[in-house]
Amino acid sequence: MPASFSAWIWSPQHSRHYCCSYDEHGSLLEYHWSGVADAPAAAQPTTTPAYTQAPSNPVQYDQPRTPQATPQNQSLGYNVSYSPPGGYTTLPARTALPLDIQESVGGDRPRRHIRTGNDGQDHEKLDTRFARVVASHIPYFFVRGRVFKMLWTEPAGQATLGQTRGSTHFSVVTWNEVAYSEIRRFVVINNKGTFSQCIPIQSYRGKGATKQGLQVQDHGVIYTGDENTEPPTVLDGEEITKEPIRVLPKNTETLIPSSRINYGKPYAVEHNVKVLEIGNVIPEHMHLLEAYFASAMKV
């Protein structure tokens, strides 16, 4: 018998609610549909689902209950990528998503989508301004001090899933492993030909370098603005000693005040990814960028 059921989720495609059942280990067992399926007779199961009782609140249940009617354009929680057929269907394979991520895609949990602006969109669609740099322009774009953002994907660590990364999308990838994707910002340090060595810019969800576990000595303030722009004040509890670095923005791209550059965590960024330019470190601060990076790389 399954250990728990998710909250009910509205399926606009089927105009019905469904929920998921999990075993005691948190692995997905089945999808359960409310009411009677609208599929052809040949596709009907031999027994009618018994979950036709009165609706209840979207919480974890020992047994599923039929939800209240929901408008067709309203969705309760995250719209999972799997679209099962009508009726009461048993999945042939289990999902690799851990329990804490399975719970985040059902019920009334906050939606988690990749966004690059306050556009009100709830689907994972990359900003059309992101583009690959043409081969002839790569030597001119990926230069030291260039600041850009891109869609970054890497394996999801079980210990921190959903706790420290905002605007994040989790997905199952090759070999049934879990990955997360998010928009990240980088500063180019060295162009290596087919890729560039870059260091990240992160706000740590507005906490700056006060976030527990950080190597504060490797962090510094980085901000966008013109020569009249004052650098943002460090947050209470931050022990940053490095001079702030200013970025001259391109168009309307900016960095939020809690943005911090991490000189001690270089990444390899391939040159064939889609990027969106933010700006350039001003020439007067290039020596700071180089010196702080070199210092952080010393063993």
From TrEMBL:
<protein>
    <recommendedName>
        <fullName>DUF6590 domain-containing protein</fullName>
    </recommendedName>
</protein>
<feature type="domain" description="DUF6590">
    <location>
        <begin position="141"/>
        <end position="290"/>
    </location>
</feature>
<feature type="compositionally biased region" description="Polar residues">
    <location>
        <begin position="56"/>
        <end position="77"/>
    </location>
</feature>
<feature type="region of interest" description="Disordered">
    <location>
        <begin position="44"/>
        <end position="77"/>
    </location>
</feature>
<dbReference type="InterPro" id="IPR046497">
    <property type="entry name" value="DUF6590"/>
</dbReference>
<feature type="compositionally biased region" description="Low complexity">
    <location>
        <begin position="44"/>
        <end position="55"/>
    </location>
</feature>
<dbReference type="Pfam" id="PF20233">
    <property type="entry name" value="DUF6590"/>
</dbReference>
